[in-house]
Amino acid sequence: MDAPIQLSFALPRSLDTRIYLHLTVKAKAIMLFLTTASMEDAGSPTPLGSFVYALPDKYNPSQPLATPLCTVEPTLEFTTRLAKLLARKTQRPTYVGNSISFASTGLGGTVDEEMDAFKKVVEVTLAQLRPVIEPAQAPSDGVHPE
Questions:
Q1: How confident is residue 105, by pLDDT bands cut at 50, 70 and 90?
Q2: Is residue 8 part of a domain?
Q3: What is the pLDDT of residues 41-93, one digit of tens each?
Q4: Origin, by domain of life (predicted)?
Q5: Rg (Cα) of the chain, in Å, rounded?
């Protein structure tokens, strides 16, 4: 999976805005970049959002460690949660850049709208990462069930 995966899907609760996803999976790390654009903004650049690095904690696997490398307050929490979730699921260091804007959603970015978008991003990303996740969850004793 050395070639980047680029795709887009509708931003939940928005009429014409899409989330654009750029996913690169390397042997030792995962990089994910997210942004949004409406149909009329598709050709213009979007501002850089937060950029977070997360890595699995071998002493406490359910709580990955995360460090923000670039912070933009409106996107920081979303980015940190996503980076930690991907690091925990894949057991690989993960870099997440996020500049998703909820301005075009029905109520302008309520908690429910943000959670719907988070769930959709996780669903789409984990579907793309399935080949990475399944070997990470294989039994560590070398015995594979038939």
A1: confident
A2: no
A3: 767 777 889 999 999 999 998 999 999 999 999 999 999 999 999 999 999 99
A4: Eukaryota
A5: 16
- State how many domains the chain has: 1
Q: Is residue 23 part of a domain?
A: yes
pLDDT at 144 over 60: no
Query: Which H or E run contains 86?
Result: helix 73-90
Read off the pTM. Answer: 0.87
> What is the torsional sign of CA 87, 91, 95, 98?
negative
Token digits for 81? 């949660």
Range of the domain at 29: 16-98
Residue 63 located in a structural domain: yes
Geometric angle at alpha carbon 12, from 52 and 10, rounded to 5°? 85
In a domain, 90, yes or no: yes
Q: CA–CA separation, 75 vs 137, rounded Å?
A: 30
In sequence order, what are the beta bridge partners of 6? 22
